[in-house]
Amino acid sequence: MANEEDAQGQSPLLVLGKIRGILECFAPENPELTLPQIRRATGLPSSTCQRLVQNLVREGFLDRTGDAYRIGLSLVRMAAPGVHGFDPVRQIQPFLDELRDSTGETVCLYVRDGLYRSVVGLAETQHVVKRIFALGTVAPLHAGSAGKVFLTYDEDAWHDALEQGLSPVTGHTITDVDEFAEQRAVIRRRGYAASFEERDIGSASVSAPVFGVHGQLVGVLGIVAPVQRLTPEDVPALASLVVAAAADASRAIGCPPALLPGQPPEEDKDRTEVAQNPAQKKAVHTTHDTGQPEGICAVRDAPSGATWGRVSHAFFRAGRLHRVLAGTLLRRVGLYPGQEILLMLLWDEDHRAQADLIRALALDASTVTKMLQRLEQAGFVTRAASPTDRRASIVSLTDAGRALREQVADLWRELEEDTTTLLSDEEATAVTALLNQIEEGLQERLAGDRGTDEPPAGTAESGGRHNASSC
After folding, report:
1. Is the distance from CB of 226 to CB of 131 less than 8 angstroms?
2. pLDDT (tens digit, 9 = 90+) per residue, 258-315?
3. Which of 105, 231, 380, 425 could cross-link to 225 by cystine, CB 3.0-4.6 Å?
4. Residues 301, 281: contact at Cβ < 8 Å?
């Protein structure tokens, strides 16, 4: 089928995307569809839709009875081996790792066990100050953002919790049934929940649902952080990443895209957790003498230890928010922060050895290998053995990978504009010069510690300036 389209000058990747779109129209609640229904669901031109459906019938991927089509038994037979040994937690783990990398915070996957929830998947933050979690950690179902997601999307869990009673875990736990019911409506509309110290004093979290093959709730995915690093003002940007990761996890275990809830509504982004947690009702947009919105790097919100290193604390706050924003923008084209840096290296010089990319990125080999695997699965790069050294792998761009260049360029321009929105051109130039000076000083310090002139990870010589822009 791909060759037929190739003859007309269309990319095989585009054809596969159209075929996938046709197959994903079918669901347990819509097992049979007519050709007009398929055409409306996919938005494909009539001639293209008809030709592809005919080809799918001929290959046995669809069966036809009269005017109705359904998934073919040949496709069902080919899919059967995929369920043997299928481990949903293992399938979801890469998305936990990527969300941890894009937010910098601990990410957990929970499943329900009666009136409790247990951690079955985990990607821990690299921060020294963190909330301690371990596989098997158990928490009450009604306390915290993950619990609120369970009680929103699982009616049996909600009724069981009401029968048991909403007992307080901390002074911030929601125990009023009417208030909790109002929050359920908000969570369902937004597609995520956030909480502050409802289960654990000093802890905040943002969580979203993970759905199974029939659109049923099978788990909850969320990030957890100290309240000093996760404030109500951080929720909108983080929620977008959490919801997207949960949607990716749902698709990875077979949930049809049509059964996934939408992204958080734009109109809710400035209200965020204030509506969900009345105990946090401080005005998000009010300002103090600093002229800054509350919670955004304001001196009064910083821990006392921030005075030990004002520049370092400013780096931490700005860098974290910058990385979250970069992750939100890159999600538009199916990338995570850091992946675009690797692609930039290939856009400058295609067909590079994997070892060369590892050196240029100044990252450990396992990190780059995982990054390449994800890009390869997304269809943006290919890897092949070197013709001169069979032990070496050559990484090359696909047509889809090359086509990303202009899109990423536009996203980085948008990121740059957002980053420097409060700076004049002169100030932006001065900040860049100062950051270069800081980078040079850190590079010299790290090189001295190592006793070598080799540039450390993340330096400009190794492509680290790009990495700094994605932190």
Report:
1. yes
2. 777 754 444 444 434 333 443 343 333 333 333 333 333 344 455 667 678 878 878 8
3. 105
4. no
